[in-house]
Amino acid sequence: MSNDVEEKKSNGELAVFENISALPVVNKQYKGMLKHIKETMPAIQKSSSNFYKSHSQFMGTMLDVTAITPIRSVKHTLAEIDKTRMALEEAHINLRKKQIDMDRKEKILSDPDLDEFDRAQAEIELIELKVSEKNIQNSITGAIRKMSYFTTQYKSILNKLGKEEITEEEYEDEEENYHIMTCMKQALNAARARGGVIDEGNLIYLFDMGINSAVAQQEIYAYLQKENEMIANGETPTHEMTMQWLEHCTERFRGDSNKFAERRGFQLKDTKSLNLLEKKENVDGEQNNQV
After folding, report:
1. 67: left (phi > 0), else alpha (psi -120 to 50), else beta?
2. CA distance 117 to 7
3. What is the pLDDT of residue 284?
4. 139 lies in the same domain as 113
5. What is the dihedral of CA 189, 190, 191, 192, to 10 degrees?
6. If we measure between CA atoms, which residue out of 185, 85, 232 comes closest to residue 144?
């Protein structure tokens, strides 16, 4: 039995297949299948290591971080990094727990006077721990690659912006553009499927931002007409053209949200409530929020 334990230590997953093969309910046909699986498993494990992450890099950039403005993209990218970091920390703790449990089982198995049934129980529990350890290790390596990728994207966005960091004030300043572009993007996509008419959800979104929905509808009608004319003339509308139109919409509607906020008695941005890079105190001991 000690030789079996050594083999299980070297590869818990393959040992599981061996144990399954030894079960009385597994006939000759299934033993052949298990042998085929066991022989191919090392190659499968090597190939599978490429996919121990939730999404591909393409999906991470194009479908996970979908913010349409750069600072919002930074926020979403940092959220992905933070989420992955927390998963890594949890996986590390779980891995250490498994390793301690394995050491404990191995110490139990080193006792030559151990009861036969206690030994068998300890051996199977050790296999279970090793399989779990391997799965955690796979998730850790995938998470490290994901975190490295989003770290690269974070630096890339900052480089495009020509900045070393983003302040909360810069984030707040970009929010109006982000929501105008996001709302008009959604309204445009909905209008394509509705004969050019904005859907109710985005009409409410426009109203809540203080933007006249009739003017927004006019913008969408004009843009769709432009696309149709281009197609009729054998030209191809581009995604970049849509982005430029969305930027045009931010110029047209910028300031409407602030007017609506003031009408309701709100101050749209409160500088003294921001996390500023430099907080100096004046001679009276009051906070000076000038950066």
Report:
1. beta
2. 19
3. 45
4. yes
5. 50
6. 85
d(CA 12, CA 124): 10
Tokens of 211: 């933007």
Of the candidates 127, 144, 142, 149, the one whose C-alpha atom is nearest the C-alpha of residue 48 is: 142
The two tokens of residue 30 are 């299934």
Specify the 3-state DSSP secondary structure of 74: helix
pLDDT along the chain (291 residues), means of 10: 41 66 78 83 79 84 91 95 94 95 95 94 92 90 93 96 94 96 98 96 98 98 97 97 98 97 95 74 46 37
Residue 216 belongs to what domain range?
Answer: 173-266
Rounded CA-CA distance 21/89 in Å is 37
User: Which of 18, 34, 51 is the endpoint of a domain?
Assistant: 51
The helix or strand, by DSSP H or E, that contains position 288, with its residue range, turns out to be strand 287-288
Contact call for residues 117 and 103 (beta carbons, < 8 A):
no
First vs last C-alpha separation in the chain: 71
243 and 160: one domain?
no
Q: State whether 150 and 62 are in the same domain.
A: yes
